[in-house]
Amino acid sequence: MFIKIKIFFVSTLLKVVLNSLFLTCTLQSRNNKDFESSIGKKSILLSTWHHQGLLLAYYIKKNKIPCWAISSTHADSEILARVLTSWKISLIRGSSTRGWFNVIKKMVTLYKKNSSIIAVTPDGPRGPRKQAKTGAFSVAFKNNALIFSVSASASKYWSLPSWDKTIIPKPFSTIYINIERVSIAENFNAEQISYYLNRNKGNK
Fold first, then answer.
1. Model confidence over 38-90: pLDDT tens digits?
2. N or C end: fewer C-beta atoms under 10 angstroms in the chain?
3. DSSP letter, residue 91
């Protein structure tokens, strides 16, 4: 009971803080026409490093993009999960370390609709930082989904003392989003995925 109460109050406070903070920020995106023109026509995998995930979520919210995100079942993740659902982002519960079979099953079901968008952070939920796991990419590849890497940054930001050094934009900063199409071969590996994510430096 105490944990549930804590999650409720902390998530409510976080919503207020983040919504107020992002309201002061300016969003800039470039080179995103390929992605935007594919929405509703093809299934899509959006991928960014874990520390940039909050900025990508805001871009999705701001542009009212129908999107699913993979959310860990860990209690700490429930706080952020409530923020994401308040931003109209649907959740697939599970992670690479817990409930992965259910995640795969749900992803396949969504991709069969041929118009779903799923956002992932391949170094989450616990790291190591900027070391990709290939599971979500394998599912996307086998189901003919388009794959995009996302670079998300801010002109001024705080970096949290967490394992991933999560980026929080400072008030009145500019948020930069760049979404780049990725083409992977059948025999791709984690190093290649990491290469594509690191290569996409975005607008800054």
1. 999 999 999 999 999 999 999 999 999 999 999 887 767 889 999 999 999 99
2. N
3. E
